[in-house]
Write a structure and sequence with these properties.
This protein is of the alpha/beta class. The chain has a single domain, classed as YbaK/aminoacyl-tRNA synthetase-associated domain (YbaK protein, Alpha-Beta Complex). Helices cover 27% and strands 25% of the residues. It contains five helices and nine strands. Strands 1, 2, 3, 4, 5, 6, 7, 8 and 9 form a nine-stranded mixed beta sheet that branches. The protein starts with a strand and ends in a 6-residue tail after the last strand. The structure holds 5'-O-(N-(L-cysteinyl)-sulfamoyl)adenosine (5CA).
């Protein structure tokens, strides 16, 4: 584990500023399980960035607890329009990052953001930072402040 050196991770570090440290791992942090194993935290502490495309075409970023699946019906109800999962090309166009490295901030567009309330109970959480090997640690309050978004019930039951 070392401070960020790749261009995409350095972009995220610049967007975050000095208060956060983007870390690059030798091991993959592409999935929530891989990230938790590399970091040494629980899967629940991984803040997954999952992009949706609303019916209007606008991008919607759901930052979900690592152990949860996103309930598209709940997201649609919160937005007032249907949503579908974004494909890899839409993720890249809307955020500027590849799947597995999408950070919660610093996107190419300004997606609407929804935060999973199940993240709110952790002292610290970890989010992707530009590449499938880069993450940074933050608090749930940081996540809300950085994204300007609130916590909501977006998870599938069970
Ligand atoms: N770096 C890790 C942990 S911080 C990470 O970014 N995990 S993630 O969960 O936020 O990003 C991967 C997510 O991208 C998966 O949860 C999944 O929802 C989504 N994803 C994976 N493959 C595809 C795909 N082919 N099309 C659209 N979304 C995908």
């Amino acid at each position: 584990m070392k401070p960020a050196t790749s261009p995409s991770a350095l972009l995220v570090q610049a967007a975050l500023g000095d208060g956060f440290a983007v870390l690059e791992f030798d091991a993959s942090t592409r999935t929530a399980a891989e990230a938790a194993a590399a970091i040494g935290c629980t899967v629940g502490q991984i803040a997954k960035s999952i992009l949706f495309r609303a019916a209007s075409g606008r991008p919607v970023l759901v930052v979900a607890c690592g152990t949860n699946r996103v309930d598209e019906g709940k997201v649609a109800a919160l937005l007032g329009e249907p949503v579908g999962r974004a494909d890899a090309a839409f993720v890249r166009a809307a955020t500027g990052y590849a799947i597995g490295g999408v950070p919660p901030v610093g996107h190419a567009t300004a997606p609407r953001v929804l935060l999973d309330r199940d993240l709110a109970g952790f002292d610290s959480i970890w989010a992707a930072a530009g590449t499938p090997n880069a993450v940074f640690r933050l608090t749930p309050a940081d996540l809300s402040r950085l994204t300007g978004a609130g916590f909501a019930d977006i998870a599938k039951p069970g």
